[in-house]
Design brief:
The protein is an alpha/beta fold. It has two helices and eight strands; from the N terminus they run E-E-E-H-E-E-E-H-E-E. Strands 1, 2, 3, 6, 7 and 8 form a six-stranded mixed sheet that branches. A two-stranded antiparallel sheet has the order 4-5.
């Protein structure tokens, strides 16, 4: 799984003209699921997201997590995070999980994040065309890949 984690001062997801998720301060997480991913990736990634210390403390040092600041999370499934661009100019998505597998893992990730954060999170709509709006705070953007745990 690949996650692009963006610290935001606000974010929202709109589908067919209707806003389905909105947060103020928190994290917008774009999640790419590949065929090799399993449910075993979820607890590690969820814990990492919830405990990632990328919010400022009183001294202006990034020393607080989204949990510490009582922030929100929006999780959006994005298969294009597994685009292969080595050949030609048209990306290949062959490594991205097929929709049935990806949807199951996406829903498991939603549940795990809600459990770890201790409250409901916002989401996108799986396989829908979405308009994702955000104000990246910092900017702070972190990339995490469960296959490369650095």
């Amino acid at each position: 799984m690949r996650a692009v984690i963006q610290r935001v001062s606000q974010a929202s997801v709109t589908v067919a003209g209707k806003q389905i998720s909105r947060i103020e301060s928190g994290l917008l997480v774009l999640l790419g699921i590949e065929e090799a991913d399993t449910g075993e990736d979820i607890p590690w990634l969820s814990t990492k997201i919830v405990q990632l210390r990328i919010f400022d403390d009183e001294q202006g040092v990034m020393n607080r997590s989204v949990q510490d600041v009582d922030g929100g999370i929006i999780l959006v499934s994005q298969f294009t995070l597994h685009a292969a661009t080595k050949k030609g100019n048209r990306p290949s998505y062959i490594r991205a999980a097929k929709p049935p597998q990806a949807k199951i893992l996406y829903e498991q990730m939603i549940s795990q994040l809600q459990k770890d954060l201790g409250k409901e999170i916002g989401t996108g709509e799986f396989q829908a065309h979405m308009e994702v709006a955000l104000v990246n705070d910092g900017p702070v953007t972190i990339l995490i890949d469960t296959k490369n745990k650095e």
